[in-house]
Please model this.
Amino acid sequence: MLRRWSIPVAVLALMIGSLFAAGSAAAAPRAPNAAHPIRPAAHLVRPAGNHTVPLTAHGGTVNAVGSTNWSGYAATGRTYSSVSASWTEPTGHCSSGNQYSSFWVGLDGFNSSTVEQTGSEVDCSGATPRYYSWYEMFPAFPVNFSNTVRPGDHFNGSVTFSGTSTFTLVLADTTQGWSHTITATLAGAARSSAEVIAEAPSSTSGVLPLANFGTVNFSASKANGSSIGTFNPTQIIMVGNSGRPKDSVSALSGGTSFSVTWLRSR
Model:
């Protein structure tokens, strides 16, 4: 299996809180199969959100779209040089089967085919939750960090364009007391969006079942050094193949904080 980018999502039209009608999904990028369905290094995080359309949400019209694998907020409409946010690693509620969920900050992927991102994860291997962290410069394979991650850990993450196709990715677990600063290059990155996202990772066969993470809380969400709310960001709602929402996304508080709450795995 592979790792992360929000799959260029198909056209979706839906009424949040009532009826969701999903459009056709774009094909996933090719990548080698992994022998074991659970990570580390098992999934692909993919771009998402391409070709989505505005939705009507509770309380009236908002700038919102549906995605088969992303939930959260994406700032668009200009060139972005940085994105940052903080979040608390949620607790995985696992019973049976293999399920997956990840939480990250990144540039690109909403309306482009590259992704520069870093974040944390909780996957379910049967009744056992697996916690870890990673970074990815799609289409290169993701790289997992070996440091301990536990539920309740506080993360700070950022991705910054440093010039000449170079990006600096920083992930810090301030609870466990470790951090990583990665310098990586990616030619042709559009830098056309900045996101703070909860995701259902994907394999070559499509979007994987979303692990029950309860609720994840994001805060201090910024793009280009300003609160992400400054950019009138798009709210992204994750939906399954049937068009039903797989989680709920709260409104932005103070332009920087929101929560995502799990509803179902598919």
